[in-house]
Design goal:
By secondary structure, this protein is an alpha/beta fold. It folds into 2 domains: 6-150, 3-Layer(bba) Sandwich (Glucose Oxidase, domain 1); 161-371, 3-Layer(aba) Sandwich (Rossmann fold), CATH 3.40.50. It is 23% helix and 29% strand. A 10-stranded mixed β-sheet has the order 8-10-9-11-12-17-16-15-13-14, sandwiched between helices. Strands 1-2-6-5-4-3-7 form a 7-stranded mixed barrel. Strand 5 (81-83), helix 2 and strand 6 form a beta-alpha-beta unit. Helix 8 (237-246) packs across helix 9 (257-266). The protein is globular, with a radius of gyration of 21 Å. The protein starts with 5 loop residues before the first strand and ends with a helix. 51% of the residues are buried.
Length: 375
């Protein structure tokens, strides 16, 4: 058996963690965040919203059910690095086709195991998301720390332009149903958002999130869905400008980054969360029904709820952990957005109703507020 290869993580606060390499050897840099999901590591790995980030999983055992070709959310892996407490010696699942370590190695992702992920998470909770360097090549602590401190901050980074879809793609439905034509703006959109629309009978046209309003309207959509993506929403000027021209002309539903871009287009303020929301167990309260939804989330920025009033919008959902805004709707225009991921199913399917509400808004041509808040 080969001897374990040493791998280190250095954080800008001066802390260094040493463990064993798994995945691809190398050096990777990014903002270090923690994810609280107990399962779903394959969906995390293929979520484009993690571009530029090193992800630490808080649940101690990762890789126990291997990797399969069905549970992917994009065509490749986007995160900068992966950190786990323990990698099992073997995986077990009837759908698995390969182990986690081989999957990471084949995609060039450096990963670290055998470190105290609780200690890393504690530092991130106390100090906020930190820049970090993960390396099996550079083992000098001083050099690693210097590299971490020289990395650019996430604020101001337009990462969405790096994962925005380029070629237009059709996702036709094979089911009977509404047959609405939905344009899905791809700033790093997850496949399951498109699948959810298909399952409701919609034909989907996936277009680059950098498309102009004219290009989008040329497809004659019944509705527009603005999907998730990475980075600072305020830096995605091209998308914000296009959305501003679309408001009032076509019903719009924003998810995650799409929710933030909608807020920017309306004039709401955006701020960076201390350590973000990353996981599959975040409680969100629906202010309309009073019900609590257990949601899947992945974002580091949020829309300032107090700035909505001047934009003609109203809060519809809040996060019960920190009271941050999780959803809003406009009182006049046909648009609404949620910060979390209604296409994800972190055990329950609490948030899937939002896709049907989007189609109701298209069908009845009434603002979301009238369909829900006033009913």
């Amino acid at each position: 058996m080969d001897s374990p290869v040493i791998c280190k993580l250095a954080l800008e606060d001066g802390s260094v963690f040493s463990g064993q390499l798994f995945g691809a050897p190398g050096t990777s840099c990014g903002e270090v965040v923690f994810n609280t999901a107990m399962t779903g590591y394959q969906e995390v790995l293929t979520d484009p919203s993690y571009l530029g980030q090193i992800v630490t999983m808080t649940y101690p055992l990762m890789g126990n059910y291997g990797i399969n070709p069905e549970d992917i959310e994009s065509s490749k892996l986007h995160l900068a690095g992966f950190i786990v407490r323990e990698l099992p010696p073997q995986h077990s699942n009837f759908r698995a086709t390969q182990p986690l370590e081989r999957y990471l190695a084949n995609h060039g992702i450096t990963a670290l195991q055998g470190v105290d992920t609780r200690a890393i998470t504690r530092r991130l909770r106390v100090h906020g998301a930190l820049r970090g360097v993960l390396s099996s090549e550079i083992l000098d602590d001083a050099i690693l720390l210097q590299k971490a401190r020289e990395l650019p901050l996430m604020s101001g980074l337009n990462l969405a332009s790096r994962v925005a879809g380029q070629a237009q793609r059709d996702w036709p439905t094979h089911l009977s149903g509404s047959h609405y034509r939905i344009v899905a703006l791809d700033c790093g959109i997850k496949y399951n958002i498109l699948r959810q629309l298909n399952e409701l009978g919609c034909s989907v046209i996936a277009m680059s999130g950098l498309s102009s309003a004219e290009e989008i309207l040329h497809t004659e959509p019944d509705g527009i869905l603005i999907g998730n993506g990475p980075g600072d929403p305020t830096a995605v000027d091209q998308s914000i400008a296009a959305i501003q021209q679309l408001i009032g002309r076509v019903p719009i539903f924003g998810i995650c980054l799409g929710h933030q871009l909608l807020g920017c287009a309306l004039g709401a303020k955006i701020y960076k969360l201390k350590f973000g929301h990353h996981g599959a167990n975040h409680p969100v309260k629906n202010l309309v029904t009073g019900r609590v939804e257990i949601t899947s989330q992945n974002h580091g920025f949020a829309v300032d709820a107090d700035s909505l009033a001047d934009c003609g919008a109203v809060a519809t959902h809040i996060n019960l952990n920190d009271q941050s805004l999780e959803g809003f709707a406009h009182r006049k225009h046909l648009l609404f957005g949620v910060q979390y991921h209604p296409e994800a199913a972190p055990g329950p399917h609490d948030a899937s109703y939002l896709f049907k509400q989007f189609l109701n808004m298209i069908a009845y041509r009434q603002p979301y507020c009238q369909l829900t808040l006033d009913s």
